[in-house]
Amino acid sequence: MSTVDDVVARLAQHRTLGSAPRHELAWLATHGTTQQVPMGRALRDEPFVSDSMVAVLSGRITITVDRGLGPRKVMEWGPGDITGNLPYSRMTRPPGEPTTEEACDIFRVHRDHFPEMIRECPVVTTTLVHLMLDRVRRFTSSDLQDEKMMSLGKLSAGLAHELNNPASAAARTGKLLAAALIPLEEASRNLGAARLTDEQTALVTRLRGTCASEIPSLSPIDRADREEALTQWLERRGIEPGHANTLVDTALALSDLDNLAAQLDVDTLRLVVTFLAADCAARSMAAELQRAAGRIHTLVAAIKRFTYMDRTMVPEPVALSESLTDSVTLLLHKARRQSVTVSLNIDPSLPRVLAIGGDLNQIWTNLIDNAIDALPGGGEVTITAVPRPGFIIVSVLDNGPGIPEAIRGRIFDPFFTTKPVGQGTGLGLDIARQLIRRNGGDIDVQSRPGRTEFQVTLPVAAPTLK
Fold it and tell me: How many C-beta atoms surround the C-beta of residue 159 within 10 A?
């Protein structure tokens, strides 16, 4: 048996190529070569990986990708599989690190033969094109998953910080509130023993409501003046002056205290003011506890909506104001750390867009995160949305140095990044564009020094019938 006949026989047993007509296998055999590759060989710089169609006859080849999360195997080829360059593919280098896990026998056809192969081997060509499409889908799915995980990783540090502040405040305030209830109970018992008249009781009840009312924030000077005035008022009447520190942030006015003093004797006045101060302190701590818990609830709700937990990933009407607000909320910590101001100007009454909610959150995170990264020394990011017939245009604008014209045409290319090694995958904008197009939209960028604007156009959802 000749060498060509031997190769044809091996190709006929190949799972992917074996069903091709015999004359096409013969053409492959006369235009390709066989090669043995030892186990453990790193193939990234081997020419045949990027310049030839490679049929694996025996052995195993794997490809791993590290996009900041550690090496991860994304694809594997064994006997009967096809890898390398394929007809109509634009691949110039493998998107990862291919390695032989087992010693391999391969058969390869150089891409210079592809034009003739397309003419002479239509069945093989069709098979290879389908393989290429499947490979693109698998790599795209892997890229998207990695980018989502990296985005969540970026957000997790900021989210942990954002949650830690209100959680610590809630724990601290809860402890203080428990301690504050002791003097409040004592003051309540003493006040009950004073046997106030109905008129006096009504006055104390009204002043308790005044204590609970919030007042506008005072400047440091105004607050110091008010505290000093309260301290002097208390000292003149022999009442603990430390109560001024509690009463200073309430709506209780000196005229209220004067009215109280006019209706009570000195001893009863002392009991009432002590009770009011203890009551105001407890109410203030309860309000602080409520604010801290509310902040935690807001953050948890934002991350739940952001990840679309318990939701199917299908297009549905999505409120842009909510989607964008959640993304900004989860990136605020990073923005503050870099002295970046993020302004969100979205009309809540805008029509909803028809999209996959999780996709939108990924899009906004990538664009806003990039805008913040473009302002390492501080600056402004402005997010707006305007309606157009049948569409909504969302703009993410920053006042950074701009995108150099020399690379502007490459920013959407997979794996292209201007960030230092380990700080960017080069997939963010590519993934954003894929997701935008998957949702029937488009993206455009305009940039000059001091103004870079990404515009995302999305279709409006059809109004629901009532």
Answer: 20
User: Any long-range contacts for 292-295 (C-beta under 8 Å, 24+ apart)?
Assistant: 292/166, 292/167, 292/169, 292/170, 292/173, 293/166, 293/170, 295/165, 295/166
pLDDT tens-digit readout, 25-78:
999 999 999 999 999 888 877 777 778 889 999 999 888 766 555 566 767 888
CATH of domain 3-120: 2.60.120.10
Q: Supply 256's token pair.
A: 């209220």
DSSP structure string for 410-460: TTTSTT---SPTTS--S-HHHHHHHHHHHTT-EEEEEEETTEEEEEEEEEB
**Where is 342: in which H helix or E strand?**
strand 340-345
- Residue 198 neighbours by CB under 8 Å, 6+ apart: none
Global pTM reads 0.50
Q: What is the DSSP letter of 170?
A: H
Burial class (CB in 10 A: 0-12, 13-18, 19+), 197: exposed
Percent of the chain at pLDDT exceeding 70: 82
For residues 131 and 16, the answer to whether their CB atoms sit within 8 Å is: yes
Longest dimension (CA), the chain: 122
pLDDT tens string 261-296: 988 998 999 999 999 999 988 988 888 888 888 778
The angle subtended at Cα 369 by Cα 363 and Cα 373, nearest 5°, is: 145
For the chain, give every domain's residue range.
3-120, 157-296, 313-459
Euclidean distance between CA atoms 355 and 353, whole angstroms: 6
Q: Per CATH, which fold does 313-459 belong to?
A: Heat Shock Protein 90 (3.30.565)
Question: What percent of the chain has pLDDT above 90?
Answer: 29
Three-state SS at 406: helix
Answer for the pair 444, 86: CB distance below 8 angstroms, yes or no: no
> What's the CA gap between 398 and 446, in Å, rounded?
11
Please give the Cα distance from 237 to 193 (Å, whole number).
Answer: 21
pLDDT digits (tens, 9 = 90+) for 238-249: 999 999 888 888
